[in-house]
Protein: Amidinotransferase
Amino acid sequence: MAAHTVGRVARPRSYLMCPPDHFTVDYSINPWMEPGRPVDTPLAQAQCTALRDVLRGLGHRVELAPPRPGLPDMVFTANAATVIDGRVLVASFRHRERAGESAAFERWFRLRGYRPVRRAGEANEGEGDHLLAGGVILAGHGPRSDPGSHPETGGYFGRPVVALRLVDPRYYHLDTALAVLDGREIMYLPGAFCAESLNRLRDLFPDAIEADDEDAAVFGLNAISDGYHVVLPAAASRLAGRLAERGYQPVPVELGELLKAGGGPKCCVLELRAGPGPSRPGPSPALN
Structure:
């Protein structure tokens, strides 16, 4: 166990969130969404605010994009784009219900001074299906993102892409079935992937934490890690224990209202990996 617990270091990060002011479940585009089920929007707002405060309390910067009426899923900013080295690849959503988010987030990035900014040419749902592990982009595809988007992703960021096919409709984005913990270590649900992708993960990450169905069903894998702290749903207590055994510090949060739309902590944040140099965008007081 000692080999797993040496050198855990928290690294300050920058995240984008969007308040769930217009959060509802009026349509169904994943198995978690039940339009007839009541949604408590003020509770969702309170839970999202608590998540923001936790992240800031851990030393991370959090910026806020303005929510738009008619786009209830904007709260899930992980799907907005992928941002690496200051380059922004804006999502192109598979479902028409979320298509309007692309223009809203593209405008936010352009106004904030990010360059370059491009909208993906094929279905590509941002960091929901793109997780950076070291220098490699783990790219999920199947329910939402199209595998045909991978060459554009790899070329745009100049990084190798590892394609991973999701086969369980409950885990429709990669970040619902896999979390990157420190760049060299991940945790994931084996049953969410096809056999070929599972073998690839086991080859690349032999020391990974393999979660079970109980962990995944409460969105325990939809976690935010800074290399030491791991923010995850409070209901994922068993998974939290396994993380602690590996030398991580679990940080439980309550996001049950957002789970009604198939969302957890990681769904609500997009990491803003800025590039080097003085042109790097700074915080926007008007949106904080």
Q: What stands out?
A: The chain has one domain: 12-276. The first helix runs from residue 2 to 5.
